[in-house]
Each structure stands twice: as structure tokens, then as C-alpha cells.
Amino acid sequence: MKLTSHMRKLALGATALSSLALLGTALPAAAAIKGPIKIGVIGEASSVAGAAIINASKLAAENINAHGGINGHKVEVITYDDHSSASDAVSAFKRLATQDKVDAIVGSYMSEVVLALEPWAARLHMPYISPGAASTKIPLQVHEHYNQYKYTFQGWLNSAFLAQSVCDFTKDVFVDKYHMKTTVIMSEDAAWTAPLDATYKKCLPKVGVKVLDEIRFNPDTSDFTPIFNKIEGLHPDFITTGISHVGVRPTVQWHDQQVPLAMTGISSQASTSTFWKDTNGAAEGVLTQTGATPTVAITPKTIPFAKAYAKAYGDSPSYVGYAAYDDVHVIADAIKRANSTNPDKIVSAMEKTDYVGTVGRIQYYGKDSIYAHGLKYGKGLVTGLFIQWQDGKQVAVWPDKLADGKIKFPSFVKLPTATH
């Protein structure tokens, strides 16, 4: 069939459009970085820990820029306060992705907030790391719906690993050194403590500790007297905690009531530098698992970062401050290796992360793990450490290789007679 002039023009136009389409599909894969690199940060600014997310992220950007940026491109941090609200966090996340046009987001230490953000990371194809949320539901979503949820990573240990760390400490110290054999679990009722308590109940008996009871209390509880009275009536050797949002109240009442039981486990607020002042000294003797302290060189980066943070903000970062600082560096490292801000390329590079941060060597579990994109736990990686408040200071007491002091129990705490 002979082509008319009009048909030839249509054919040529179609060919041209086809060529442009092919070029268009090839551009994202071929495109290198177009600076500056924008990283969004969402934090609970009214809390010490949440403020540390924002502050530490800013310091990370300054550090990266001082060393040449990302392949020569400057890093900019855009911050929002979510007011500890999931809805506010979602609004901030969407604004960062759609209006501020950030390349990745770091945000929130609250599991309830992160579980609300995770679907939005999926919908908006936005690489996202939480520097503190511990719920095991977060990585499980990635594992079960990888193609959809692959954009989310956990920048701190999940609840199962936190519990294992507590059990490892309990075995080395409370069981082997102080001959303690029984405990009561006392945790706030929250998304992160359900898997924490479930793991406590599995791993504590394995290290020689009988769990006499599990008490889960409402985070709005203001009077812990009935709870402590019930625990004392069970006559355990110590209390194992899982508390984050209410650390001051139970600590003050534990001290004022002279509860004769050592309190250990996880008290997130006790990891902050203001906890001694917040409790008016009632924190004396409190033990908690945490990520790092300003005086312990977990890696060569730990103390320099803590000093820089103290110089800039007048205090020390909480565990989420260390994690957020590392998370911004992890994102920068991934973008640098990918030489791209394409979200899928960033995710692929992040999955291959092998980075020494302030809290240890950072790697992530693969998609076949139920902890997919969760921070790996174990020897040579990230394990955390235990600190105890002594005379207004945080003293690292475990593991022995990182300890800068020894455990000192308050005078009202009664130890098993076998230790005397």
C-alpha cells in the first residue's frame, strides 16, 4: 500500500514519540545525582529523645558537608516536629515527599508513629529510616510485602533483640554475679513492648530466671504504688522493665517507696542526659540498656560525635541521637555508592550497607528474614550496652570490655542472701 503524505507524517511522528519514550524511560536509570541532596527529618521535638533526632541529623549533615558532601553535592536537612502525633507525622512525611522533594527521610522513635508512616513510604516510594522505633511489626511488613514496603528500614534494634540484650546482661550479671533467680516483668502497654515481653518470657528462663508475673500498665498511669505493692508481694529478686514514655513516674515512686528490688531492663528516658534532673536524683541505681554513652568508645566515632553534640546543644544525645546521626550517614553512603537519588537505587544500596557508625557496625537483614531491613544484632555488629545512674552520671557497666565502672545498688535494694 502506498503511503500518503499525511500517513508518512503520522508514521514519522510515531517513530519520534517512540524514540522519546525510550529516552524517557532510560533517563532515571542513567541520571546521576542532581544536588543538593535533601534529607527530611521528623522528630518529637518536645521530648529530649525526639529533639535529639533533629539535632543529631543536623550535625550529620554538617559532618558530611565538611568532608565534601555526597560526590560533591551538599546535604540539606529539612526538619518537622510531629508533636508525638501519628497524624502530624504523616502530614509532615507527605509534605517532605511531595512539596519539599526530599530524597530520603529519617524520623520518629515511636513505633505507633512509624507504623503509620510505613504505608506512606510505600505509596510515595520514599526511602525511610526510623532511628528508634522497635516494634517487630515494622520489619515484618517489609518481609511479607517486600515490593511494596521495601522503602522502610529500622535504624535501631527491634524489640526482640533488645530483650535478648537484656537477657544476656541478666545472665552475665544478675544470675552469675548476684545469684538472682526470679523476676517480674513490668512494661507499659505499647506496640514495642508486646514483642519485648514475649521475648523476655522466652529468654529469661533460658538464662536461669523464673518469671513470676507479667504486668502491663497503661502509659497514662500516674500512681505506681499498687503495682509496686503487687510486685513486692510476689517476692522476686528484681524487676525487668520495658518503659519509654513514663520513665520518670515509676522511677520516682520506686525510689520514694524504697522498693527493695533492683530495677533493670529498658527505661528509654533513663538513657537521656536529663533523667537525673528530671527525677530529682531518684534515678540513682537505675539500670537500662541503651545504644551508647559519651564516655565509651564503642567505635572511633562515638566519643567525637558525643563531644560535638554537647558543644552544639549543651547536653548528650539519647540512644536515638546516636542512631539518627548514623542513619543520615547511612543514607548518604547509599546515595554515594548508587550515584543516584532514584529511590529504588537508594534502597538497593542501603540493603548492601556495611558501615561503622557510632553504635557499632551497621548492616541490615535481607528480605527473606522476618526482620527484613532491621538492624542486625550480634557480636561485631550492634549489641548496645548497659548503663547505671550513679551520683548523677551514666556509668557503663556491661559488657565488661566497654564498662567504665561497676554496679552499685541503692541502700534500700535487698540482694539475695547468697551474695553476702
UniProtKB/TrEMBL annotation:
Question: Which regions form coiled coils?
Answer: none
Signal sequence coordinates = 1-31
**Residues of the Leucine-binding protein domain:** 36-369
Key word Signal present:
yes
Q: Mind listing the GO biological process terms from this record?
A: amino acid transport
The protein's superkingdom reads Bacteria
Q: Mind telling me which InterPro entries this protein's record contains?
A: BCAA_transport, Leu-bd, Peripla_BP_I
Q: Per its UniProt record, what CDD domains does this chain match?
A: PBP1_ABC_ligand_binding-like
Keywords carried by this UniProt record = Amino-acid transport, Signal, Transport
Q: Which family does it belong to?
A: Belongs to the leucine-binding protein family.
Q: What is this protein's name?
A: ABC transporter substrate-binding protein
What species was this sequence derived from?
Allgaiera indica
